[in-house]
Structure prediction request, 118 residues.
Amino acid sequence: MTEETLFSKIIDKSLPSDMVYQDDLVTAFRDINPAAPTHILIVPNRIIPTVDDVQDSDEATMGRMLRVARDLAREEGIAESGYRLIINCREHGRQEVPHLHMHLLGGRDLGFMVAREK
Prediction:
């Protein structure tokens, strides 16, 4: 059994959130510290610590995360202008919560994906 996370508490509604979607596989909610006008986190309901921990049996969940991101981008009105999906993994990837999550960002020009070293 994987230890509870901040996100698992949002999923089971023991912590409040601005939830925008939930089904049997994934939950989506607005980031409390948004980096763009639209900033939604899409998480698997089952705790998967990092993307490196995804198993073959998680294929449906990972596909659902992408479909939900697409649908939410359309609902938020950012699909036409474009958006970014980000999944961070571990320390160097700057993952802050040990529960796999995908950021849906849009609503403005997001600039370059990664700052280049000088």
Summary: The chain has a mean pLDDT of 95.
